[in-house]
Amino acid sequence: MGILEIRKLSKHFGGLAAVDEVDIEVNESEIRGIIGPNGAGKTTLFNIISGFLFPMKGSVIFKGKDITKLPVHSRVERGISRTFQLTNLFMELTTFENTYIGYHKNYRQGLVSQFLHTARARNEYRVGYQKTMEILKFMGLWSLQDTLAKNLPFGHQRMLGVSIALATKPSLLMLDEPVAGMNQEETMTMVELIRKIRDQGITILLVEHDMAAVMNLCERISVLDYGKKIAEGSPDEIKNDKKVIEAYLGSEEKNSYNA
Amino acid sequence: MSLSTYQRRFILIGILLIIIFLPLIISSQHLMHIFILAGLECIVVMGFVAQYHVRLLTFCTATFWGLGAYASGFLSTQLGMSFWVCLPLAGVIAGFFAFLIGLLVIRAGWVTFLMISVVIAEVFVEALGHMNLVGGWDGLGRIPRPAIGSYVFLSKASYYYLTLALVAVCVLIFKGFYNSAIGKAWTAIGQSSDLAESVGINISKYRMIAYVTAGFTSGLSGSLYAHYLGYIVPPTFDIVRSLYISINAVVGGLGFVISGPIIGSMIIRAIPEFLRIADKYQPVFEGSLIILCALFFRKGIIGVLSRLMPHRR
Amino acid sequence: MGSNVFFQLLLNGLVLGSSYVLVAAGFTLVYGAARVFNFAHGHFYMLGAFIYGGLVFLGIPWILSLLIVGLALGLFGLITWYALFKPLYSDVFLTVAISVGLGLIMVQGIIVMAGERDVVVPSVFKGVFALGDTTISLEKLSIVLISLGIMSVLHLFLKSKIGKALEATTIDQEGASLQGINTGWMFAIAMIVGSSLAGIAGAVIVPYLSAQPNMGYPITTTYLCIVVVAGHGSLKGAVIIGLLFGLVRSFGFHYLGTWDYTIMLLLVAIIMYVRPWGIWGVEFRRKV
């Protein structure tokens, strides 16, 4: 059984089925891609897995436990972390502070000892500090640690989003369009980093439109169209899958009619 | 003009000395009274700012103040408890009510939260007016003065130091939270609640902590207020008072969790004194001040000061 | 209980309810479309009451007075929007804070001009008429009918092109502007209509209740309760709950004295527990 299992997940908005009876199983330490034309339901799926939305039907099973009804913070406790499609950062805080807050869930001390700054609490803060530094160095943000998030260049802001998510020490990292808006160089850097993250034992779930990056990075890919899963397999299989090609062509046609 | 760390520290110590020796510098009893009220009020304002910090807007801050005042008044007059027992109890009672209300409303959106706070503020005064147990509209009087052994707190100076002590305690409480991981979580929630949630912060829990702490400290302040004045009436704690509290916060500067409330309360109490503004024009004064600040001084007085005198590191 | 008493209570409830509906509808428009929490909305109601009282006192016919009140408050709302809300639109709390300031000044202004006592406005529609064995005061009937008329006009307005644009803006601001709707104008229109409604609500009820500088505060509590229970953004809900609360207050006051408030609050508490976004409200959606 995979680390993450989605069974018959369904979510409707009004009359529209955003996610329609989707089954996906993700194996541990896998890099799984979720692709599909615009509006296929990818971000909705992400939101349901991470807990920002609740499904109407179906279940989400993580590490063998049913987490379908759990609130977001409980899922983070269990090891799921995500980034956002639209850059979402603590804009008025520095790069360091942003990442440091990500470590928050790992503090085991209770409220009282946190308030009193006991030795144990301070110890934990020290560990958090070190871990934050490690992540910043890993993501290449160490030299920018005192820059306010709002003053970072776009590519670095996206990197910061990932480092915040990493700071929670996840078992499953969900990246929502990590390389969107990035140039060639930044994309390559990000792809490399994602691979290295996986090599540390973290499972990666990826939504992305950049086909080159997806084909390069992902071991398996699930394809959604109109909320349904229409294909699943290795990059080669997906590249040549008739249904996938049709779905993308079809949406292109639609777009050109409207243009 | 920028200030070095050394200069800043010097100024801070100077201000602290003035605060400590104020009764010796000022002889006017009326002015002392103003400072005492400003001090008690700034505690409630700190609570308001703490809630604002986690994106909770409330217009019932005076309600918890009043809860503390009435609880303390009732316990001391009807049950004969000493002030030193009533004070913490008042805080606990106010904090407890904050907890109960919080259970209902913390999950709601900020607008609903604000709306409910308005309703609570109005209802509180009405309810008090109809409670004969605490004097109804006539108020609760003969609230005993605090005493230690045979020393009874009578002079304004003595109350000033009592207030100062209470403010110091509350500053310690709030600072304690802000400097800890709890404070970090609060800042995260205030900046982006979605992001905060996505890193595992339980928004409702941390908001509740802020809400209850604000209620508790407001209750403490209310207790001292009641014992200082000796006589309290329901309209003192109405929604207009809560509105004034929020105005204090904006004038001081919403981004500055300790200095903002203190300066804001001082300014709002001091200016009418110096300009000889009659009591009945207080609402116009407060109203104009907030409109002015909102339009032109969004970061409040402290914001203006920190721009004029930045920290030269 | 005699049917006479019942009928009177019902009528009183409708009278109160009509006024609540107008105020709540106004607030729903302003908050729903412009996303502005105008804390002075209740004081606009108060202002409408005083202006109407003054005009009627000067002998100006009621329908003209009502029209003037509507226009005056509409204008006042527009000025408030441009001078106070629009510059601060990005900061949610500051818009509330500034409306608080406005309210304080308004109340004080009226107190200075008219004193703090109640101002009793003479009835325009004197007399009663009999229906079966009950007597209906024409004053009360007129209030209900006039409010009905105003709400009908509002209903027709909302069906117009501008009205539909307003509705679209309420549901989804971004979507509306993408459709080519000038949301800036929509906000201004919402403020004009909403403020106008508040003023008319005050004017209409003033022969029944009398004008008082602080009357803005209790009505604020009431309309907030209505909006919380109905769900902010729902006009239909505001109407239904507004009337309901009017009836609750009327019957409640008769049987329970001043604890009529309590029933209203109980309803609010229950809704908060069961369905925090109101009966017709939209579930709190996130923008992820």
What's the arrangement of secondary structure elements?
The complex is a heterotrimer of chains A (259), B (313) and C (288).
Chain A: E1 4-13, E2 16-26, E3 31-35, H1 42-50, E4 57-62, E5 65-66, H2 72-78, E6 80-82, H3 95-102, H4 111-116, H5 119-139, H6 154-167, E7 172-176, H7 184-199, E8 203-207, H8 211-217, E9 220-225, E10 228-233, H9 235-239, H10 242-258
Parallel strand pairs in A: 3-8, 3-9, 6-7, 7-8
Antiparallel strand pairs in A: 1-2, 1-4, 4-5, 9-10
Chain B: E1 3-4, H1 5-25, H2 29-53, H3 61-78, H4 83-105, H5 110-130, E2 147-148, E3 151-152, H6 156-178, H7 181-191, H8 193-198, H9 203-229, H10 239-252, H11 259-274, H12 282-296, H13 300-308, E4 311-312
Parallel strand pairs in B: 1-4
Antiparallel strand pairs in B: 2-3
Helix pairs in contact in B: 2-6, 2-9, 2-10, 2-11, 3-4, 3-9, 4-9, 6-9, 7-9, 10-11, 10-12, 10-13
Chain C: H1 3-34, H2 41-57, H3 62-85, H4 92-114, E1 128-131, E2 134-137, H5 138-159, H6 161-171, H7 173-178, H8 183-209, H9 216-230, H10 235-256, H11 260-274
Antiparallel strand pairs in C: 1-2
Helix pairs in contact in C: 1-5, 1-6, 1-8, 1-9, 1-10, 2-3, 2-4, 2-8, 2-9, 3-8, 5-6, 5-8, 6-8, 9-10, 9-11, 10-11
Explained architecture:
The complex is a heterotrimer of chains A (259), B (313) and C (288). Chain A contains ten helices and ten strands. Chain A has 259 residues and is of the alpha/beta class. Chain B is an all-alpha fold and 313 residues long. In chain B, a hairpin with a 2-residue loop joins strand 2 and strand 3. In chain B, helix 2 packs antiparallel against helix 9, helix 3 packs across helix 9 and helix 6 runs antiparallel to helix 9. Chain B is globular and about 55 Å long. Chain C has 288 residues and is mainly alpha-helical. Chain C has one domain. Chain C starts with a helix and ends in a 14-residue tail after the last helix. The chains are: A alpha/beta (259), B mainly alpha (313), C mainly alpha (288).
